[in-house]
Design a protein that fits this description.
heterodimer, A: 271 residues, alpha/beta, D-Maltodextrin-Binding Protein, domain 2, 2 domains, B: 274 residues, mainly alpha, MetI-like fold, two-stranded antiparallel sheet, 1% strand
């Protein structure tokens, strides 16, 4: 009986899968995507499902950061430009952009997995990043210097981190600049003295996310609003999206598959 | 045939002319879109766009210091390789050098990032992202260029019997002595040309600096200080929100790199007396 139920449920799952992708049946063409680096796992998983279903559809996914996402979609170089921040009024007006939020992501402070520091207060994070605290010893760690890592201007992750967690405070100009969520994770995972920040979806066992004021940065805490350093992830198009692009966006925002992909990438679906 | 040759020389000249016009034109056009204060702010010591500070001097300084240091590291290495090539007459070494010129610079930079930066962090102060790491990787990058130019200048001098070799041998000089005391002196201008062209290559490389300099837009204060180069600056700015002021900065950085390459190339040409 149990086996039978499993088979039945698998059949249903398969059907749901097919139904989600049915909207791509008669379509063909290319969707080019660039911008926010936090979005990449979601975009790639969706692209993989869609092109496996219909090989006449080609979807390319690139990074570049939120700033590049806006610029490239505004210039018509890509159909979808991703941002990890809301569009500015000037960007909506000047370029005629339309925006499609699809997931909630939190931004967490990360350190090396062997770093004994487990919790940081907001004030400590502010002081670490503005250079007032320069040794891990001062906040319960080993007696070593602190290497700051930050993201480039134009990064959506940076904007959320600075605006919400640092309360618009300054980041020491000496902080090392890396230019993607992945590069940040790699850099901090290889530096026992490092501290940086990434989207919660990017966290894995190569780095350790510290609690902020006693609250663990998990997607549950982010979606319930307990963890405050959160943002939305957006896809943006120039004007109304054409058929294939629209189907792609709806696949991510509305379908059951899309929700599954978003959850697997470590984010919380918006709908 | 003659026409074809002319056509291609014109094409070559045109492409350089177009590039120059694009850079200078872009610089003037973007300068015209901002006010004088904006143009002048580019020549300050501080880069902090939210505060309206757009100084590129730290990047100029970073670029120059990394390139100069890389050249200084590469010169003795290259000298040693030249001597060993001539002492052993080893053609395998030449092949290695030629092969090295073809390795994409990103390969050098990720090796630097994963090996050199952690080593630097353990051995010295700071994070390991610093001028010294960048210069060390750049020196390996420019080493083959420097050595090959010197080697190709020395090759005819030391290999053709009718030139230097017979005279030197009749005076009782062996290969190494001929190289050290005579050939290197005769070809000194070419050696310097090699040094200059490698320096120019070190000035312009982007990905090495982008990956292991730390990219901090502040004046470096020592060998173990993080820094940002002009080329990495352009690359990082493409990801930011491009305002007219940022656009001007990018063209200015491009113009500076272009002019530096031009100046070095002209200097090398003059040196050889062409």
């Amino acid at each position: 009986m149990k086996k039978f139920l499993v088979v039945i449920s698998m059949l249903f799952a398969a059907q749901a899968f097919a139904a989600d992708l049915a909207s791509f049946d008669k379509l063909s063409g290319t969707v080019q995507i660039a911008g926010g680096t936090a979005h990449i796992p979601v975009m790639q998983a969706a692209a993989k499902n869609i092109s496996a279903h219909n090989d006449k559809i080609v979807i390319t996914v690139a990074g570049g950061g939120s700033g590049a996402g806006v610029k490239m979609v505004a210039d018509g170089l890509v159909q979808i430009g991703n941002t990890g921040r809301a569009l500015k009024d000037s960007e909506i007006k000047e370029f005629g952009l339309q925006t499609f939020p699809f997931a909630i992501d939190g931004v967490a402070v990360i350190v090396h997995p062997e770093n004994p520091v487990k919790n940081l207060t907001t004030a400590q994070v502010i002081d670490i990043f503005n250079g007032k605290i320069t040794n891990w010893k001062e906040i319960g760690g080993k007696d070593t210097g602190i290497d700051l890592y930050t993201r480039e201007d134009g990064s959506g992750t940076r904007e959320v981190f600075v605006d919400i967690l640092l309360k618009k405070g300054a980041i020491l100009p000496r902080a090392i600049i890396v230019n993607s969520n992945g590069a940040m994770k790699t850099a901090v995972s290889r530096n026992a003295r490092g501290i940086g920040y990434v989207g919660i979806g990017s966290i894995d066992n190569t780095v350790k996310a510290t609690d902020i004021d006693g609250i663990t940065p998990t997607q549950e805490n982010a979606s319930s609003g307990v963890y405050k350093v959160t943002r939305l992830l957006y896809m943006n198009t120039k004007g109304a999206p054409e058929k294939l692009t629209k189907a792609f966006i709806e696949y991510i925002t509305d379908s059951a598959d899309g929700k599954k992909i978003i959850v697997e990438a470590g984010y919380i679906p918006l709908k | 045939m003659k026409r074809v040759i002319y056509l291609f020389s014109i094409l070559g000249v045109l492409s350089v002319a177009c590039l120059s016009i694009a850079i200078v034109g872009g610089l003037l056009y973007s300068a015209a879109r901002i006010d004088l204060g904006g143009v002048l702010s580019a020549f300050s010591l501080s880069w902090n766009p939210p505060q309206g500070e757009y100084g590129v001097i730290p990047m100029i300084f970073g670029t120059l210091s990394a390139a100069v240091l890389a050249t200084i590291i590469a010169i003795p290495l290259s000298f040693g390789i030249i001597i060993s090539i001539w002492a052993s007459n080893c053609s395998f070494m030449r092949w290695i050098l030629r092969f090295m010129t073809g390795i994409p610079t990103v390969v050098y930079s990720f090796c630097g990032l994963f090996i050199l930066v952690p080593i630097c962090r353990t051995l010295f102060v700071g994070s390991g992202y610093n001028i010294l790491s960048v210069a060390a990787v750049l020196s390996i990058l420019i080493l083959p260029t420097m050595t090959i130019i010197a080697d190709s200048a020395l090759y005819p001098l030391l290999n053709k019997p009718e030139t230097l070799r017979l005279t030197a041998e009749s005076l009782g000089l062996n290969r190494e002595k001929t190289l050290l005391h005579i050939a290197l002196y005769i070809k000194r201008k070419w050696l310097l040309t090699g040094v200059l062209l490698s320096f120019s290559r070190a000035l312009g490389d982007t990905i090495i600096a982008l990956m292991i300099s730390g990219n901090t837009p502040v004046m470096p204060d020592g060998l173990f200080s993080t820094m940002r180069t002009l080329s990495a600056h352009i690359s990082l700015l493409t990801a930011s929100e491009i305002t007219p002021q940022i656009e001007f900065t990018m063209f200015l950085a491009g113009f500076l790199l272009f002019s530096a390459a031009l100046a070095v190339s002209l200097l090398a040409k003059r040196l050889r007396g062409e």
